[in-house]
């Protein structure tokens, strides 16, 4: 739907006068709850990735089975992602957040059962761990889709990108915490029960705060013109509109692929580096730099876009620079004793790559308006999970087992380690190809901003006409 038609729809729905738009302080509380929940879920997702070798030894399982604790997030969120988009746009933000909080907490508690010796689970302990991960995976799409909806419903137009950035970037913050905390808590495999207990604390806290503190689906008065129209299209109609929207499809494929690549990078970083003699602690440090610099990049870009509204230009530039950083990492990671260069490369990859995330989510809403925020962002997330699963399986299939190397730090109960040269080069090539495709072919209008601008002009004209009518 073009911007003028969307503006007409706003007028027909009686969005009234600009004086009626209002913001509430409790929007910051809601933002904090969603951020905590997002952070906790990410921590639970990548709990074992930084200590994959020690987890494999502790549970007496293969490294591939440890990787499935991360991959299951991707697999479950593909079918459930479509359900989550319907839940968010139809049931509402409040119930979506509370449901996700309970799923997240229950999963974190069930994971602890796997390490309780008095239960005598033995060989079944892994499946309790896997079941807990599955419940946390069910919560993920509900949580991931919420920031855009929250920003649209509770925040004015000049704060939406920043609010979306804060809530969305709490997910990589959770990844950061997992990359730093897991190696610190698990110097040896016997400390894994302590790690699971520590990771359950934020999940329980988020669940309690969400259940007790969130009371409203929407604010009493909308903060902007588009907020009143936030769920204007029925779910199935919205899906049809998205599938016919060429700019949206390009954004979903390219940005979804970018998320899939970052998922693989975060989950496999320790395994990529240990074969070249880098420790788990160094891999965790690289993951931390990757995320911290990403948070900084997202914060700065979010402020910039809130002021300039240059969504397209910002994402294209950052996508190209992140592709260059991925090439640098692919080359550097194949050499030993390049710690400083690797740290710088990971930092640049995160700075430019993560910066795209919240802006692209806002851009998805802009190019698909008036489709509901949950549907427009949810379909991109589902696409990213599909691409992420394909990439995870492909990259692991491209690895080559090498003879045992004394300099390798991979602590596996297997003969030798895995060489990741081909997979990381393929990853860099795919990132570069998607960046080029996005830069060349993606073009769109900012439909939501145009609709709000046109609606504001209509309201001003109406107010002027009313003021000129003499009283009886």
Description:
Helix content is 75%, strand content 1%. The protein is mainly α and 472 residues long. Helix 1 (3-12) crosses helix 17 (447-467), helix 2 (26-45) runs antiparallel to helix 6 (125-154) and helix 5 (93-113) runs antiparallel to helix 8. It is globular. Mean pLDDT is 81; it is low at 1-10, 12-19 and 458-472.
List the SSEs and their pairings.
Elements: H1 3-12, H2 26-45, H3 52-59, H4 63-91, H5 93-113, H6 125-154, H7 160-185, H8 192-213, H9 225-228, H10 235-243, H11 246-274, H12 280-308, H13 311-332, H14 339-368, H15 373-397, E1 400-402, E2 417-419, H16 421-441, H17 447-467
Antiparallel strand pairs: 1-2
What is the gist of this entry?
By secondary structure, this protein is an all-alpha fold. The chain is 75% helix and 1% strand.
